[in-house]
Design a protein that fits this description.
The chain is built from three helices and 16 strands. 17% of the residues lie in helices and 39% in strands. The strands form four sheets. Strands 11-7-8-9-13-5-4-15 form an eight-stranded antiparallel beta sheet, with no helix packed on it. The protein starts with 5 loop residues before the first strand and ends with a strand. The protein is an alpha+beta fold.
Length: 214
């Protein structure tokens, strides 16, 4: 059995240090209300940058969720790499979700493409085309192409890449994160049946999002 373990992402250390120092300053000045707000904010920031270990299913025919959050859309969407209409699942992450993104399948990172844009609420449909985003093209072990798009949201202002072009990552491996609220769209190749519904909650690296059709 794998013991539960949670770490804090190093990408969040600057924010964590700032809120802790601010809280200390407020306390030294005797500002009770601001000190309490600082403690609450410190807890929220620590919670946001947590990175718990996950037990990844070993069934080779499944696809796992790339993000913690809520399924806000399932349908045919335009792939940002190929321009083709493909089946897609969109997962919205609020500020209380874990924001570390994980690989839905094992594969090689063929390309990473950045798109500048706006910062609309990431739960809206137009976020997929109008918001700042980072798209990943993945080729799996069967030479099928997958596309993931990390989308910045209303509060999010930075998309962090933890992998590079040419890297081969296993299903469930960490590949990136988005700071403070965001969304991940996953575009599936043909031959997969989606196993979640709109409104379902997902856990990155664990929730079965789709399964290969027989």
């Amino acid at each position: 059995m794998i013991p539960p373990k949670t770490q804090i992402r190093p990408e969040g250390l600057n924010a964590i240090i700032m809120v802790i120092l601010g809280t200390i300053v407020f306390a030294l000045h005797g500002w009770v209300f601001l000190s309490l707000m600082g403690l609450i904010l410190t807890g929220l920031v620590l919670n946001f940058f947590r990175d718990p270990e996950r037990v990844v299913p070993d069934d080779q025919d499944i696809v796992v969720a790339p993000a913690d959050g809520k399924v806000v859309k399932i349908g045919v969407m335009t792939d940002p790499f190929t321009g083709e209409n493909r089946q897609a699942v969109c997962v919205f992450m609020n500020v209380f979700n874990v924001h570390v993104n994980r690989m839905p399948v094992s594969g090689k990172i063929e390309s990473i493409r950045y798109y500048p844009g706006r910062f609309f609420n990431a739960s809206l449909d137009k976020a997929s085309t109008d918001n700042e985003r980072c798209a990943w093209l993945i080729k799996d072990k069967s030479d099928q192409n997958w596309t993931m798009a990390q989308i910045a949201g209303l509060v999010a202002r930075r998309i962090v890449c933890l992998a590079e072009r040419g890297d081969f990552l296993e299903r469930g491996d960490r590949y990136g994160l988005i700071k403070f609220g965001s969304r991940v769209d996953l575009y599936l190749p043909k031959g997969y049946e989606i196993k979640v519904s709109k409104g379902d909650k997902t856990i990155a690296g664990q929730t079965i999002l789709a399964r290969k059709s027989l």
